Amino acid sequence: MNRYISLLRGINVSGQKKIKMTDLKTLYEQQGCQNVITYIQSGNVVFEHPSENTHAIKEKLEAAITEKYQFSVYVDVLTVDAFENTFNKQPFTKIDIESEGNKAFIMFLSDKVDPEKISLLTPFIKHGEQLVLNENCLYTFLPDGAGKSKLTTNLIENKLDVTATARNLKTVRKLCQLAEEANE
After folding, report:
1. What is the DSSP letter of 13?
2. CB neighbours (10 Å) of residue 176?
């Protein structure tokens, strides 16, 4: 079995696209996933699947969600190794994840972005905010919090022409821990 972490974009936000985690776990199991663990209400799932094709798993999960809930949800499926590597490459090594991990985010992107496009976000960066583009993700540090920043997921998606879902470093670290514990 292969271990994966999936991130669902935009569920259970402001009463929109409601999915209970117990129902999501069942839906994943119905799609051939095993040892399914959900974490908090934003759609984070650690699971095992016999397939090595993350794209096929992603499509299967998105189709099942659309069929069951009558709305579409972007699902990003990553191997545990890829997810952990993304976390380990985060550039904000001087912050304390316990106290500031909710101000630093990894935005997982659907496609690679031309580094030149990052300049499209420059007019929206407030003092102290930082952006670092790396392969299929954008690392952001928002010292005043995401709620006070102009660098929203929707803005970043529109400017970079990608689909994205963001998780703060505390959540990413916890998902890495859950994946490791599931492996023991």
Report:
1. B
2. 18
Q: Give, for 65, the enclosing helix (H) or strand (E).
A: helix 54-69
End-to-end CA distance of the chain: 14
Q: Which domain holds residue 125?
A: 89-168
The alpha carbon of residue 148 and the mean position of all alpha carbons in its chain are separated, in whole angstroms, by 20
Residue 139: give its domain's CATH number: 3.30.70
Q: Indicate the residue type of 52.
A: E
d(CA 163, CA 153): 9
| 79 and 130 together in one domain | no
Report the predicted TM-score, pTM, of the whole model to 2 decimal places: 0.93
| pLDDT tens for the chain, residues 1 to 184 | 999 999 999 898 877 899 999 999 999 999 999 999 999 988 999 999 999 999 999 999 999 999 999 999 999 999 999 999 999 999 998 999 999 999 999 999 999 999 999 999 999 999 999 999 997 899 999 999 999 999 999 999 999 999 999 999 999 999 999 998 877 6
Please indicate, yes or no, whether residues 41 and 112 belong to a single structural domain of this protein.
no
The partner residues of 34 in beta bridges, in order of sequence, read: 48
